[in-house]
Amino acid sequence: MTNLNFADLDNCFRNDDFPSIENDIRGIRFLKLRSMSRRETMEEFCTLHNIDISELKSRQYFQHVFNLAEITNEQIDAFGIQKYREERQIRLSNEDYLVDQLSRLQSFDWGGSFGNSLEKNIVDNYVKKKKVLVTS
């Protein structure tokens, strides 16, 4: 296990060096915080945990929170779960409409490699199968 600083982890991230991040003591912490590093989300997290960011620019929030020893991984996890549940509720309310619209497609330009297409996988394994389940 390594013990990289924020700048090193950020450099690994920008260079798609995920094995180095995963092999770091705080690598998973970095990735979790990175996933919520948008300004609004970080501001919400900081407000929830009474973190003063008033003197920081928004691009400094991520590094600041990452370096705060008093912020636990459990707090980060709980916030992530809360945000996921909120966003999932929004998506659920639109799911039937999305499935209906996707099932109306006569053809879909998969682009790129046909065998490796994420879109093809989503439609084939989620939309079309769900359609079959719904109509049965």
Number of helices: 7
Residue-averaged pLDDT: 85
Estimated helix fraction:
55-70%
From the N-terminal CA to the C-terminal CA, the straight-line distance is 52 Å
Main sheet attributes: strand count, strand direction, barrel closure:
none
Sheet-strand content, in percent, reads under 5%
Tell me the Rg in angstroms: 20 Å
β-strand number: 0
Which oligomeric form is depicted?
A: single chain
- Which overall shape is indicated by the principal axes computed on the Cα atoms? extended
Order of helices and strands: HHHHHHH
- Counting helices, strands and paired strands, the structural category is mainly alpha
Low-confidence stretches: 130-136
Written overview of the protein:
The chain has 136 residues and is an all-alpha fold. 65% of the residues lie in helices and 0% in strands. It has seven helices and no strands. The chain is extended and about 50 Å long. The N and C termini lie far apart (52 Å). The C terminus is likely disordered.
